[in-house]
Structure formats: C-alpha cells, structure tokens
Amino acid sequence: MPSLLQGLSWEAAEQYSVQNNEPDWLRQKRRAGWDAFLSLPTPDWTRGIRGWWSSVLKPLNFDELRPFTAAGASSLPGNLDLDDPKDVPAGLIVQHNSETARLELSEEARSKGVVLSSLSDAVKTHPEIVQKYFMTRCVPVDEDRFTAAHAAFWSGGVFLYVPANVVLENPFRSLYYTDQAQAALFSHTLIVTGANTRVRLIEEHFSTGQAGDAFVLDSGVTEIFVGENSVVEYYNPQEYGENVTSIAVKRSMVGPHAIQRWIVATLGGDTSRLTLESVMEGEGAHSETTGLGFPIHKQHFDTQFRQLHTVPHTTANAVFKQVLNDDSQLGFRGGIRTLKKAQFTDSFLQVHTLYLNDASKADILPYLDVDANDVRCAHGATTGMIDKDQIFYLQSRGLSWTESEEMIVAGFFDEGIQRIPLESVRERLRESILVKLEG
Amino acid sequence: MADNNELIIRDLHVNVEDKEILHGINLQVKPGEVHVIMGPNGSGKSTLSNALMGHPRYTITSGEIEFQGQIINDLSPDRRARRGIFLAFQNPLAVPGVTVTNFLRTALTNRRKGDVAPQVRPQNLDIVGDRPVYETKKASVGGDGANIDRKQRQTLISPKEFRSILKEKLNMLKMDEKFTKRYLNDGFSGGEKKRLEILQMAILEPKIAFLDEPDSGLDIDAIRIVGEGVNTLRGKDMAIVVITHQQRILSFLDVDYVHVMMQGNIVKEGGPELSREIEEKGYGWIRDELGIQSSQDEAREEVGV
C-alpha cells in the first residue's frame, strides 16, 4: 500500500477511500463526518457542553495524529493468549493498528451462516446490511466531534452478523491492538442479529504503550442491533496503556423481547471516556449492564451511561462498580430515561465507588428522567473507603492487610468478571486488577 | 515456644475511643481447657475478644497479653491468627465476590506458614507498627507481612490437598459443600454464618479459639449443630473460650471454668455449677453479693427491654 497522508485531513480520508474502492455512499459518509468534524467543537467541560462536564480531556492535537496506520511486522504481546486450546472461541478477529491482522471462524458458526469479518470487507460482501445499520440511527455521524472524526477516518473494524434462529453459546472474540505511536484509531464494531438468536462477543482493547509514551487516540464506536427475541452479550475489557486517550461510544438498540447484556471493564488508558447506552425500542426488551472501572496513577475515567426506555413494558438493571487509587479521577454520569409512552418500565441503576486512598477523586451523578407515570425506576449510589471491619475480619483469619485489601477489591470486581465466558480472559483481568492494586 | 500454647492475660486495660471499657482483666487459659465468659450485655465481653484479636479500634492502655511465651500486645491481627489465635465473630461480615473456598485456601496457607515478622521495605516508612497507614499511597503496596507478596502466594496449598481437607471438615460438621462456593457470608442466614465460623475454625486448627456469642440469634437446633461442632473440634491441644450471655449452648459443652464479667471486670469465677446458678437466678444475686451498682445497659436488660 502506498504511503498515506499524515494528520487528520480530508485528503487522507479520501485517499484511503479511493485506495479501498469504497462505494459512493460510504465516501459520502466519510465526507459528512469530515464536515461535521470541522464544524463541531471539541467537547470539553470548560465549554459547558452537556454530557461532558466530568470529562477533562488533555489537549488533543489532531494534526499530529496518524490515521490508517499499518499493522507492521511486530507480533502481539504474549499475555493475550489467543491460542489457548481450552478457550477456542467461535470466531476470532484481530485488528492490529488500523488493519485486520487475523480472522478465524469456526466451522459451526460458518455453517450456520454467521458472518465475522472486518467491517471494511463487509462493506463489499454485505453492502445492504452495512449501509442500513452503519452509523445511521444507532450512533449518528454528527453525534459529537469524535463520532464525526470516526465516520471520516475509520478503517478495519469488526462486523458480526448472526442470521435468524442461530444460537451459539461459544463466544466470539475480537481484539483491537495498537503499538503505533501517535496513531489515531477509529475502531468500529457492528453487531446485527436476526430474530431468535443468541450470541456473545468478547471485545478487548490492548496496547503496548505506557505513561509518557507518544500519545495515541482511539475514538471507537460499537453499534449493536438485537433482533426480536434475541440475546446479545457483549464483554469489553479495555486495557490500553497509559498513553492512550480512549473516547468510546457503545450503544445497543434492543428489539422486542430481546436481551442486551453488557459487561464493560475500563482498566486502561490515560483518559478513558465511555458512553454506554441501551435503547429499549421493542416491548418486552430487557438489558443488564455491569460496568467496572479501576483508575490508578493519574488515570482519568469517565462514564456516561444512559438507559433509555422508549416503549412500554421494558426492564433494565445496571450496576457500576469502580475503585480509585493514587491521584486518579473518575466521573460518572448515568441515568434512566423513560419516555412518556414507556409505561410499565422497571429499571434500576446502582453505582458503587470505593476509594483506596484520599487523593483520588470521583464525581458521581446518577439521575432519573422519567416522563411516564406508571413505572418503577430507581437508583442508588454508595461511596466510601474499604470497610475496616471487613479488613479486620480477613486479618483475623491470617491474611495480611495487603492480602485483605486485594481480596476485597478483587471480590468487588469479581461479580462482573466471573461472568466473562473465556477462562483465559477472566484470569488475565484478575491478574491486571492485582497488578493495578500493587501500583 | 511453639508447644507452650498457654494464654495469659495480665491486668488488661482497654480503651475504645478514649473511654476505658476493660479495667484490668486477668485470665489464664491452658491448652485443652474450656472456659466460659458470661455476663450481661455491655459488660465488656466482646471488647475482650476484639482486643485479644487486635482490632485497631481497641487500644490496650496497660497490661499484657502473653501467648506462647511472648507478649503479643503489638502484633497485628493476622500475625496473631497465624500463631493460632482464632475469633469466631458474633456478627461475621459479608465480603461479596470472595468465595469461601478461595478465602479459606489463602487463610490456611498463611496459618501453616505461621507468623513471620514483616519485612518493612525502606520506601514504606509510613508504616505504623506493622500496619500500613491506610491513607497513604504506598500502603496499598504492602508492608505488613510483605513476605507474603504475590509471587510467594503462587505457592498456596494445592487445590487438591485443600479440597480434601475441606471435604473432611465439612463432613465432620455435617455441612453441605454448596456452602463453600458461595461468597463469604454474603446472603447467609444467621445460622449459616455461625456454622461457617465453626468451619473456619475447623480448617485453621487454632490453638485457642474465642467464640463470641456463638449461640445468639439461633434456634435450638442450630445451637445443637454449633455446639456439637465445637465439641468435635475440641482436642487435647485446643483451648476454647465461649463468650455468651445465654446458657443454652453450654449444655453441649464440657465446661472447665466459668468467669463472670460485669462493667469491665471479671467479678466472679468458678466451675460449671456457676453457669447453672446464673441460669436459675440471673445476675442479680452476684451484684448483690459483691455490692455492684447495675449500669444503665444492664438495668435495661434486666427489666427485659
């Protein structure tokens, strides 16, 4: 591939689009993204833009970022353990920097008509599905400056399509990995399921960088469409290095009698902002959200959660658990929004925050915004240090202070982690949490 | 040292938040003995057990606790536990997300290693005694028992060996294996919590066990299960101190000594007949005999509030 232009510019996007023979509609979408990127402000709490009050973005120099970075020759880090014979997923896709580096699909999934590919390929192989669902009503191009940039500069990506009546217990696995300094990544995952399906995807974000390394931006988008009476489970451990700014938008459109389950764990990144939403658009829809976060050092994490009930008879339960240490900061703004016609909604949100020291800082704002008059919506939040009596209890059985603290924090997270379907991923996350506890 | 498992408490004064609760307790427990500490609510029984275990809120202002020939006043709770002191809590705390199995495997590993003096690393000078200052950043890196850091913890006793021990003790206490897959005390009923305390005692095989109100809140069947469990575990080496203000569990135990506590002092001592006398007559006669004014708490209890 000939060398590409540096920096975020329309020429770079256009050149990429031409080189990849993208259809017109897609090039127009990139153009729309670019135009919106130019016209929208960079969201920042100091400008009072709604929904960004708790995000403190370090200055982003878009001119120095490089989109469309090649995979390069280096291999993946060993602790990812993609080839554990005990943990063979139904399909595996690896995006290294901006290119798809590996793609496997089990015979079972293939024979049932499941499609797992890069989104770039899906544009050609399944144009009607991609055109219908990609950055349309789920995450619109001009939602904010980052989704706009995303629309203009995305590459690679993950496309998972599950036709009607296909049930797969074995999870799929996708991995976004970067080792490129000053890369601008725009990871995009699109999951579309037909009626009566069941599918699970573990999506991991990983990088080699550390604090102090050259800056990397990942502005990712995940769009999920859960078909009628289907179940989608999406597990997302994010373990970027502490030189990455991650601005992710993940949204699911949940159909009639469908279930969306989220387990997201934000462990990495220098600044990691996650917008997480379930839109209940079919009667009888249900969603379950588990959000974990553990900032240390100078990490700054921010979660914007919204549970949106648009039709009657939908239910949801969301639990966020976060632990802070060192000089880290954490923002959480999340709530339940019920439209006027969404009667008989039953929705609950809990946010639990644990401080390991008194230098870290958290801003927690749960809210209810209810227009219907016959619903059950509630939220609860707890904030505090580890219960010293709990520590004493464990110490009285011979565990040291350190071991007790580790065990309590690991347990705090484990209710989420233990539900992740691949043993090797669970183990790696538990290990990551212990490493973070040690500083 | 190791074979001298005698506990000697000499003139122990204990403060809670600057208020003296215990005013000079003396107690001697030899291996294999069963002691009962009785007394009305608010007499200081739980303070004594918490101070013995080293709860940070309970400050020893004078006197000493000697165990295995050494003064242990300044040892952290985990070091006391690794030496063989056990406290069955009146209200065991729930630790969600931590399975009973994982927790007990770590606990048993440490108990077997025994007490090792902590290695305080140079950068951890903000550690007070052998307990890190909670608020400091380095505290979470460890310093207390830093010898048991993560690498060494890889040498936990093998799952296979642990499972067989666990199974044996569960059978002994007629407990279901499902217990051990649950989160520690999380959603446990009162009876289940008490039985789990006894299971922990069975697995850790302490030299001396304090049972703080092992019978409170239990019906008679549950008390029998706990009482029989304690009896099964009582060996010639293990001393037991039962703290209670009821008498029901005592019918399942062969008691050697009874101590009566009131207002932070041990006021009367005797054999098992003393507990029977208290069962019949309550505490009033002891007060009259010794000329003790009943405190507010005790008075409230006597009028049955």
Based on Cα principal axes, name the global outline of chain A. Answer: globular
Number of strands of chain A: 20
Envelope shape of chain B:
globular
Mean pLDDT of chain A: 91
Count of β-strands of chain B: 14
Rg measurement of chain A, Å:
21 Å
CATH architecture label name of chain B: 3-Layer(aba) Sandwich
Order of helices and strands of chain A: HHEEHEHHHEEEEEEEEEEEEEEEEEHHH
Q: H/E order of the elements of chain B?
A: EEEHEEHEEHEEHHEHEHEEEHHH
Total count of helical runs of at least 4 residues of chain A: 9
Q: Can you walk through the features of this model?
A:
Chain A is α/β, with parallel strands linked by helices. Chain A has helices at residues 10-19, 24-39, 107-111, 119-125, 127-133, 145-153, 388-395, 401-417, 423-437, and strands at 91-96, 99-105, 115-117, 158-162, 172-178, 184-185, 188-193, 198-207, 216-226, 231-239, 244-254, 259-266, 271-280, 286-293, 300-309, 315-324, 329-338, 346-355, 361-370, 376-385. Chain A has a ten-stranded mixed beta sheet with strand order 2-1-5-8-10-12-14-16-18-20. In chain A, strands 3, 4, 6, 7, 9, 11, 13, 15, 17 and 19 form a ten-stranded mixed beta sheet that branches. The radius of gyration of chain A is 21 Å and the shape is globular. Residues 1-5 of chain A have low confidence and may be disordered. Chain B contains ten helices and 14 strands. In chain B, the strands form four sheets. In chain B, strands 6-11-12-3-13-14 form a six-stranded mixed beta sheet, with helices on both faces. Chain B has a four-stranded antiparallel beta sheet with strand order 2-1-4-5. In chain B, strands 7-10 form a two-stranded antiparallel ribbon. Chain B is of the alpha/beta class and 305 residues long. In chain B, helix 6 packs parallel to helix 7. At the A-B interface, helix 7 and helix 8 of A face helix 2, strand 7, helix 3, strand 9 and strand 10 of B.
